[in-house]
């Protein structure tokens, strides 16, 4: 360490002595004033982080894909709560009733392990895709990206293109500027309000949310939640925009841990592009293919320069790829100076393995989880049964030489249709059921059904039942759906005897 410091000090003294010598030789009475010019960091972007980023509108192959997927996402978001199935909303998280309706399936709190497995599988699927294609989720399917581009589209239609918007920002407040700004924010507010209603419609029936909110007849709680998500949408998509991706989204921070040399991301081919520089079309030059038009920065929603290398802010939206390909076409150069490629592609490593162990590991985890989900769905029952014994009396001996045990059956119908169930009893003794063997349960309801099970004391006295002298015997209650006999559930209990 000391050696390094000595070298640095010697270099500094040598530089100072040369500067003094040059000053003396130039003028024996006056020295040349030295002006300190701060060096520009290679990561400094034309769009500074403390200034508003005006996204340049860009069209092209990847932007058509992004626009199509974003539009599909938004349409599904608003449309799903409006779909009716079997007389009720097809998709509904009913917090009041504590169940989740998904078309013909009803999930209760005890079934939410299935929902947890689905969410975990979705997370690993995201990791799997990220290892292969980078942050394509952020660029093509993320709601933050979709709503941001919707708001940018509205801004572009009202205030004009990028240059006009920047000019409007600098212009003094006048009638034209006020009209454009008020119109823009009004439309943004309407979109945000519909978004808040659309989100809450997944938890409160849509036929209730929209009429009550827009007729100002909604309860305080419903109004508060709708406006809360409307304000969040407005702030995120209009004011914060790229700041959410840069500072709030955790996915942007740990995405690099899933990347490897085979991950396909948006990358700049520096070998082909450097040295960059402006030139006229069809002009002979020794420069690289990059004409330094800066369009790749102007169209970037996070304001980065992809030519500085991979950065965590990049959301892989492909806007810079379309912009660069457009420029390459104009100059007659080969496309994909900026394109989707891996590090191995850039290095020309054709012998690299196509997939990594990380990629394979995520794939195996997804297959295992899909198997668990399939087994959980297969074993899932539409009937819930809970058998409760009468704890006050283990058994009763009647005057007509019978032994009785009392039970309470709690039967829940987990389907969306009214069901009639048959109660069957099996065991080691000749059990009989006092009362009706059939019980009707409405859709999504639970009934409490008390029953009495009887055996003849003569059967018990002769010892015909297995383990009858032990004081209790096994008994099994089976509930069968008479409309679908395969839909059944059973639970064991004990029948007590003297």
Automatic annotation (TrEMBL):
Pfam families: Fer4_18, Fer4_5, FixG_C. Residues 281-309 form the 4Fe-4S ferredoxin-type domain. Keywords: 4Fe-4S, Electron transport, Iron, Iron-sulfur, Membrane, Metal-binding, Transmembrane, Transmembrane helix, Transport. InterPro entries: 4Fe4S_Fe-S-bd, 4Fe4S_Fe_S_CS, Cyt_c_oxidase_cbb3_FixG, Electron_Trans/Redox, FixG_C, Ig-like_fold. The keyword Membrane applies. The keyword Cell wall biogenesis/degradation does not apply. The chain crosses the membrane at residues 67-85, 114-134, 185-204, 216-237, 359-379. It comes from the Bacteria. PANTHER family: FERREDOXIN-TYPE PROTEIN NAPH. This is Cytochrome c oxidase accessory protein CcoG.
């Amino acid at each position: 360490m000391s050696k390094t410091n000595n070298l640095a000090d010697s270099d500094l003294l040598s530089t100072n002595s040369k500067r003094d010598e040059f000053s003396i030789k130039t003028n024996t009475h006056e020295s040349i004033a030295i002006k300190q010019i701060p060096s520009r960091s290679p990561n400094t972007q034309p769009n500074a982080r403390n200034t508003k980023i005006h996204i340049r509108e860009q069209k092209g192959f990847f932007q058509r894909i992004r626009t199509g997927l974003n539009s599909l996402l938004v349409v599904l978001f608003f449309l799903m709560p409006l779909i009716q199935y079997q007389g009720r909303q097809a998709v509904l998280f009913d917090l009041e009733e504590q169940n989740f309706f998904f078309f013909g399936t009803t999930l209760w709190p005890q079934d939410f392990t299935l929902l947890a497995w689905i969410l975990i599988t979705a997370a690993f699927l995201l990791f799997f895709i990220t290892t292969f294609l980078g942050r394509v989720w952020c660029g093509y399917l993320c709601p933050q990206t979709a709503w941001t581009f919707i708001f940018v589209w509205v801004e572009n239609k009202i205030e004009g293109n990028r240059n006009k918007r920047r000019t409007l920002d600098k212009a003094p407040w006048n009638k034209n500027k006020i009209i454009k700004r008020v119109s823009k924010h009004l439309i943004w507010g309407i979109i945000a309000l519909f978004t808040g209603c659309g989100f809450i419609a997944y938890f409160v029936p849509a036929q209730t949310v929209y009429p009550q909110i827009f007729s100002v007849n909604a309860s305080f709680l419903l109004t508060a939640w709708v406006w809360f998500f409307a304000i969040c949408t407005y702030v995120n998509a209009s004011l914060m925009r790229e700041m959410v991706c840069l500072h709030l989204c955790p996915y942007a921070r740990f995405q690099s841990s899933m990347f490897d040399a085979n991950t396909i991301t948006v990358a700049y081919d520096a070998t082909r592009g450097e040295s960059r520089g402006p030139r006229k079309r069809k002009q002979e030059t020794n420069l690289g293919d990059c004409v330094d038009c800066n369009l790749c920065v102007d169209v970037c929603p996070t304001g980065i320069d992809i030519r500085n290398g991979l950065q965590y802010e990049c959301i892989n939206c492909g806007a810079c790829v379309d912009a660069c390909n457009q420029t390459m076409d104009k100059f007659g150069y080969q496309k994909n100076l900026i394109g989707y490629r891996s590090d191995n592609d850039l290095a020309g490593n054709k012998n690299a393995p196509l997939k990594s162990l990380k990629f394979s590991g995520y794939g195996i985890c997804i297959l295992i989880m899909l198997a668990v989900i399939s087994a959980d769905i297969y074993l899932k029952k539409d009937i819930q049964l809970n058998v409760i014994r009468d704890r006050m009396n283990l058994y009763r001996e009647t005057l007509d030489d019978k032994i009785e045990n009392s039970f309470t059956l709690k039967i829940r119908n987990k389907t969306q249709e009214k069901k009639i169930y048959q109660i069957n009893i099996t065991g080691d003794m000749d059990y009989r059921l006092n009362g009706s063997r059939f019980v009707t349960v409405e859709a999504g309801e639970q009934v409490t059904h008390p029953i009495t099970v009887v055996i003849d004391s003569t059967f018990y006295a002769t010892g015909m039942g297995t383990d009858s002298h032990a004081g209790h015997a096994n008994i099994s209650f089976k509930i069968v759906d008479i409309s679908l006999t395969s839909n059944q559930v059973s639970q064991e209990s004990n029948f007590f005897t003297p």
